[in-house]
Every structure is written in structure tokens, then in C-alpha cells.
Amino acid sequence: MMDVKYWNKEKETIQREALEELQLKLLRDTVDRALKTPFYRRRLGKVGIKSGSEIKTLEDIKRIPYTTKDDLREAYPFGLLSCDIKDSIRLHTSSGTTGIPTVIYHSRNDIDTWTDLMARCFVMCDVGQGDVFQNMASYGLFTGGLGFHYGAERVGALVIPSSSGNTRRQLSLMRDFGTTVVHATPSYLLHLTSQLECCGVDRAELKVKKAFMGAEPYSEETRLKVQELLQIKAYNSYGLSEMNGPGVAFECVYQDGMHVWEDSFLMEIIDPLSMEVLGEQQEGEIVFTTLRREATPLLRYRTRDLSYIHGGMCKCGRTHRRIARIKGRSDDMLIINGVNVFPSQIEEVIMGVPEVGTNYQILVKKQGQLDRLTLKTEIYSKLFTGDISQLDALKRKISERLKASITINPVIELHEPGGLPVSEGKAKRVFDERFDS
Hints:
By secondary structure, the protein is α/β, with parallel strands linked by helices. Helices cover about 30% and strands about 25% of the residues.
């Protein structure tokens, strides 16, 4: 039995019936707040909802239309603000690289609630006063940096706000200040492990015991590789800026699915094609409704993230349901010669090959009328001995395993360590050049 700790035991172990009663009350409040916004006045008016009191049961949420990212873009910049701008103390926006950005406003209570949820996440992984937390996520408009920062401070950890990049500096900080917990993307942690030797840092000099990983989809094999290379425990984190950022769902010490904080987010899993709500263990798209946010309430927001709800209770005693790691996004799926492939399926295979290093890329191009999948992956330097037959055997091994998993026979390119570009934030793994003009 592991040592299970709580930040707020009453809320984290609330019984299901009481939780649903609370959710219903908060949902009605959220609908009333949403009706203060121009966007939801129009949207809810079309389905005849004029007050939160019209929501009689949690099932009535199905009367509410889904909200999409395009809706948030349409409402930019003030269409989803439900309070006076003077009562908001912060906003976060998306990058807007694909068009009009989206914006989420936060009141003082919103920031306090978000921070408290992050505190639950830290304590759930047995992190608190006495820990040194190095936050290697970007700060600024990206929510990952500030979300973790505030949560770590609330539980009394010493925070090093190192932000992303500058690997040599990151390792120096870890060594000099005795960092015990880090937060970064899994791809950056893999890069960090590959740089220990060239930065003159011995793993034995570091006190790191735990890592929080998120901001990009990754496989269980990648988690195991990070844990093995850094000799730490790595915990999955899930969040999205539309729901605050980090702190929506997090693993506990048992590392068996991520607990969604259901007293702040009402969760549904839907079939992304039929829009029907699915049951436990059925994979689909996650839909969230904010239950406590004041400044920007969102109703039935389609995240595009794919997962499923675990059945049964967690051994930690928390009653908030768990979701599986994010498989990918419904709009990330590649269709290659008619076969549906998620990048996470490819990563799962190659990270299980011991000779494969810590960086890879997936390239899809047209070759005549057909699609051609190329996998570029780094391998460990000791394999570059000039023995071509050994490299050819490794290519065949990777190709056969991928074909068995995704039924596609890819081209395999092997690269030396450091031979592929490194991402310091979210890793860009997929390059689909079929539709480039």
C-alpha cells in the first residue's frame, strides 16, 4: 500500500451521489453565467434555455449544443466574457497560428480555484514543502508555466521558474539547487537525458525523483523510457487552455489513469462522428463543461482529444473518475492509403525498440497516386560501427513491428543522436506534405 496524501480529502473523496448533486447545482450556476455572454445568449436561446433553473437533471445537459474551437474564434475577443472586464485579472490566448486566436479570461476566484486544483495534483504525487520544483515549461500566454508555478508555490515547494530551453543551464540549475521535481514535455525530457554527458553532468549528481509530463500526446513506452533513463517516476498530466490549462486531470501515486477533477469539470465522452455520448471504457472525444469558472464559462466544449474513462475505483481512494492517457486528437489522425493511423501508435511501437534513441519524425508524402510514410529516428551511437548489416537488420525490425501494428510498410531512416531537430516546447513530430502546393 502506497502512502496516499490529499490536499483536500473531503472534496477528493466525495461520494458519487453527493458529487452529482454538487455538479447539478454548479451546472445551473454556469448556465446562468453563460447567459450573460452574447455568444451563449444566442446559442442557448435557439434551444429555448433562458435560465439555469431549467436544467432539472445532469441528463438535461444534452439539451445544450456543443461548443467548438471555431465558436471561440467567432466570439473573439469579448463574446464569451461573462463579467465586467474590470473583474478579470488575467487572460490567456492561443497562438493564432491557424487563424483568429481564442481567449480565456480569469477572475480572481478563477485563478484561486485553478491554483487549488494544481495543489491537489502536486500533493497527489507526494510533492510539497521541502521539494525543489524546476518548471521547464514556457511562461507567458502559454498556460503550462503559470499553472504549475502557482500550484507549486501553494503547496510550499521551492520553485525554479527556469522556463523552456537552454539545456545546459537547466542541468546546471538542477545540480546546483538540488531539484527534486521537474515539469516538461516528454520530448524535452528525452532530449535532456541525451545531453547529460556532453554537458558534463553525471546523473548521480542530480537529486531529481519525479517528473510531471504533458502538453503533447505520448505513449506509455515513452513514459517508461523517461523513467528508465532518468531513474525517476514520471506522472501524466492533462489540461487544455480552454479549461484553464494544466490541472484538469492528473495521475496519483498509482500511475493508473488520470483523475479528472469532476467538481470543477463536467466530463462526457462522445463519438466524434455521431455525437452520441459513450459509456465507460468506450474510446471517444472528451467534452468538458466548466463548473466553477466565472469569467469565461464554457458549455460542452469539444476538446478533440481522444481517451476513455477507466472503470472501477482507484486504490488511492479518490472518487473522481480517471481517464486513460490521451491517444491523440480526432483531427490528428492520418489517413494513409485509406488506413487510419494515429501518430501515437507509431510512437508506441518505436519506443519499445531498445536500439531507438530519443527523437523521431514522421513524414508523409505523395509518391505518384499513393501516400508514402517515412519514419526518421535517431538510434544510439554505439550502433554506428560501420556494420551496414546491423543497421539493415534494425530497419527491418522496426518496419516489421510497425507493419504488424498499423498495417503499413514504412520507409525507415536511421540517424545518429542529435541528427534530427530538437523541440524545446511541444514537439513537432508529424510532417504531412501531401497537400502542400
